[in-house]
Design a protein that fits this description.
Blueprint lengths: L22 E8 L3 E2 L8 E8 L2 E5 L2 E5 L3 E5 L5 E5 L3 E8 L12 E4 L2 H12 L8 H15 L3 E3 L8 H12 L7 H7 L4 H11 L4 H18 L4 H7 L5 H12 L3 H9 L2
Antiparallel strand pairs: 1-8, 2-7, 3-6, 3-8, 4-5, 4-7, 6-9, 9-10
Helix pairs in contact: 1-2, 4-5, 7-8
Length: 266
């Protein structure tokens, strides 16, 4: 499917009041620099990215979800999907009676190997509607597994604090910035102690942890595009590829090359 920027395939259920089945799976490719309209629907939605980085805005808060997570959107939550790079993503639509054990609030969910395999199977062998009884059972098992998934908030949270948000934007524009926390604090006219406190308050993690996650986000499209690990490491501010590989494996559970192979199927 070749879609030009600003052209993207919306869900076939957009604007509908009900789903054609209690649980429905749908997948699409979205071009770079595309955005879905702000919308809501009377069913829950679990969004998973097969390739690329999903970005969803809910109540002014941006959720970035890499491929080891999925994003849960409860029924009637107004949201907007967008992306800077081309993505392939899937949505599991869940009618209200089947949402009772899912989280009450929007959050990222950790994806188990079983859930990932089930999503990949659905993506590769999309069952046509109306579903067979076996398809309905598979979708229900997937929901059962998601009900047990560990919540993760937002993988790369943002802040409404003027100084902290300015610093996060600076790092987003220059992920290889190697300045210390004290130097970064000074750049936005904060003390190091104040910056540390605001990071814990708004991000629920240290600035260094947030910066490592940002570098993961930046590395993903480069890996899929075929860039060498050594060049990515240097671009992201690492003195050696081994340091970058160790960080990537700690956060992703796989090496950069292993991630690349799972994303492009080679």
């Amino acid at each position: 499917m070749n879609l030009s920027p600003r052209e993207f395939q919306q869900s076939p259920y957009a604007g509908h009041e009900a789903l054609p089945s209690a649980i429905v799976f749908w997948a699409a490719q979205t071009p770079a620099d595309a955005a879905y309209p702000v919308h809501s629907h009377p069913w829950g939605e679990f969004v998973y990215s097969f390739s690329g980085m999903m970005e969803v805005v809910v109540a002014g808060r941006q959720y970035l979800v890499p491929s080891q997570y999925g994003l849960w959107l409860p029924p009637n939550v107004e949201h907007q999907g967008l992306n800077r790079h081309a993505t392939c993503h899937g949505s599991l639509y869940i009618s209200v009676p089947h949402c009772t054990a899912m989280p009450e609030l929007t959050c990222a969910l950790t994806i188990s190997p079983l859930v990932r395999s089930m999503l990949e199977h659905l993506h590769q062998s999309l069952p046509p509607l109306p579903y067979r009884a076996a398809d309905e059972r598979l979708l229900q098992v997937l929901v059962d597994q998601l009900e047990q998934a560990e919540g993760a908030g937002s993988y790369l949270p943002t802040s409404q604090d003027p100084q902290l948000s300015r610093l996060l934007r600076m790092l987003d524009a220059h992920p290889g910035d190697g300045r210390s926390v004290a130097q970064l604090a000074s750049a936005v006219h904060l003390t190091e102690r104040t910056l540390v406190r605001r990071c814990q308050r708004d991000l629920s993690m240290s600035l260094n942890e947030w910066r490592q996650r940002l570098r993961i986000v930046k590395a993903m499209p480069l890996l899929i595009a075929g860039h060498k690990v050594e060049s990515i490491a240097l671009e992201l501010g690492y003195g050696s590829s081994s340091a970058f590989i160790a960080m990537f494996r700690r956060l992703m559970g796989v090496t950069p090359d292993e991630y690349r192979k799972t994303r492009i199927g080679k």
